[in-house]
Design a protein that fits this description.
The chain is mainly beta. Among the domains are: 39-170, no CATH class; 287-382, Immunoglobulins (Immunoglobulin-like), CATH 2.60.40; 389-470, Immunoglobulin-like (Sandwich), CATH 2.60.40.2550. It is built from 5 helices and 29 strands. The strands form 6 sheets. Strands 16, 17, 18, 19, 20, 21 and 22 form a 7-stranded antiparallel beta sheet that branches. Strands 2-3-4-14-13-5 form a 6-stranded antiparallel beta barrel.
Length: 472
């Protein structure tokens, strides 16, 4: 948040806020830590299957029940997976909230596989084996289990290997969802609370308790309401520094871990309502931005920003969202300069953006995992191309999918067709009316053999043909 370090700076901002509102957005500072105060009781297991594999801690063969755990969090029913094969657990057993799983692959699996996703791609018809394979994949990332050593069931082994391959390819920097956060108000003396579900959709929460380590707040509790999931503004007085706390019965997302006596660790497999706490530094300005702007070059959006000072700055995630949307997408990362009082210039190019209007922001993170947002004040408009164009597919050669980009300068019917080397049509990727703009389509060739193929784009009486190579 753009919190002021002294009264003079605060008063100056008040005098110019109406004229320089964009500075508030550019320098919006959010330094949030999401933690939990909830307790879990584990009561037993449900579906699953026994698995025999080589224990990486002992290098000995071991047979373990790979099952979902049943239990409650603050009295609300939910389910858990295990992320610790070194110890056993008894029933019932009490567990205490620990921290978010650091592995992006574990969070990705929890987000995309059973039970949160009841019907993942490739799901086994035998639910017991599906759960066991998912558990083996989680142990691969938490304990280093080699799924290839599963010896008692090839179905479980092969499914676990598929899940691991999917997580390796697609997890990226997946993190546990933020479901409660403290955000900067337009007024530099105020903040508000926003509550979300695990899919970043607004969620209404009542009775959020607020406090600050020094100074005073205009309210000691707030409610968030739909459609925004946001609370009214809360004003801070009597201090220019301190820590704000917000605590409520809110949604705890899958990926949060719980530690039981004896250090058995379980990970939440389904979101559940429990005691959640957020804290934020009031007055902390880990990064001061001197400028933040953007320009468009064709389909590329070029972002430039300059910092006048940095403290413990690990780097910036660059995030984009459609002007009509609510969900932000990470599109890149730029390393920071740690701690510095010198000017530092940064640049990032978001390439091949489709036609449309977008908002951009920087998520600056320090080495402790705290973060703040800096919003670009202006909306970015990626316009329409000047000419008809068909791009070379990427990757090329490919197996089994590739992306084909094409530009349409004038609205009209568009047809994109794939032919084999004999000239036989094997696929029609596009055959419909398209507005002018930058377009992209994916060609899935998993059902055809290796070879040379051609793709042809036709629109408004103009056509172009390109060659691509499928290698299996």
């Amino acid at each position: 948040m753009n919190y002021k370090k002294n009264n003079e700076r605060r008063n100056t901002m008040k005098r110019v806020i109406l004229f320089f509102f964009f500075l508030l957005l550019i320098k919006a500072n959010i330094s949030v830590s999401q933690s939990g105060l909830s307790d879990a009781i584990v009561t037993g297991t449900s579906v699953g299957h026994s698995v025999t594999f080589i224990d990486p801690h002992t290098n000995q063969s071991r047979n373990v029940n790979a099952k979902l755990f049943l239990g409650t969090v603050d009295g609300n029913v939910t389910k858990f997976y295990c992320v610790d094969i070194t110890r056993t657990i008894s029933f019932p057993d009490s567990c205490h909230h620990d921290s978010a799983i650091s592995s992006s692959q574990i969070v990705y699996i929890l987000n995309n596989y059973y039970p949160y996703n009841p019907n993942p791609v490739g799901k086994l018809s035998n639910l017991d084996k599906e759960v066991a394979a998912t558990q083996v994949a989680l142990w691969h990332y938490s304990d280093g289990v080699d799924a290839n050593t599963v010896s008692n069931d090839n179905t479980i082994k092969n499914r676990a290997l598929d899940i691991i391959a999917d997580a390796d390819a697609n997890a990226g920097s997946t993190t546990v969802a933020t479901t409660m956060e403290i955000l900067p108000s337009m007024d530099p003396d105020a903040f508000y609370v926003r509550t979300l579900d695990q899919n970043s959709n607004p969620m209404a929460i009542s009775g959020i308790q607020l406090s600050i380590s020094q100074g005073a707040l205009s309210a000691d509790s707030v409610d968030t309401s739909l459609p925004t999931g946001e609370s009214p503004d809360v004003y801070v007085s009597g201090t220019s520094t301190g820590t704000i706390y917000a605590e409520a019965q809110a949604l705890i997302p899958q990926g949060i871990t719980y530690t039981c006596p004896g250090s058995q660790r379980l990970v939440l497999a389904l979101p559940v309502i429990g005691t959640l706490r957020v804290e934020e530094d009031w007055g902390a300005l880990p990064v001061e931005l001197a400028s933040f702007n953007a320009n468009v070059s064709g389909r590329n959006v070029i972002l430039n920003w300059t910092t006048s000072s940095e403290s413990n700055n690990a780097g910036f995630d660059i995030e984009r969202r459609s002007a009509e949307g609510i969900e932000w997408t990470k599109v890149g990362n730029v390393a920071g300069n740690g701690t510095s009082t010198l000017l530092h210039d940064y640049s990032f190019t978001d390439r091949n953006v489709l036609t449309g209007k977008y908002n951009y922001r920087l998520k600056q993170t320090d080495y402790n995992g705290n973060y703040e947002y800096h919003n670009l004040t202006s909306e970015i408009n990626v316009g329409t191309p000047n000419s008809f164009s068909l791009k070379q597919n990427y990757p090329n050669p490919f197996n089994p999918t590739t992306k084909i980009d094409f530009d349409i300068a004038v609205d009209g019917n568009v047809k994109l067709t794939v032919y084999n080397s004999s000239g036989k049509e094997i696929a029609t990727l596009v055959n419909e009316f398209k507005t002018s703009g930058y377009h992209s389509v994916t060609f899935d060739a998993r059902n055809i053999s290796s070879g040379i193929y051609y793709y042809k784009l036709e629109s408004n009486g103009v056509s172009k043909v390109m060659k691509m190579t499928l290698l299996k």
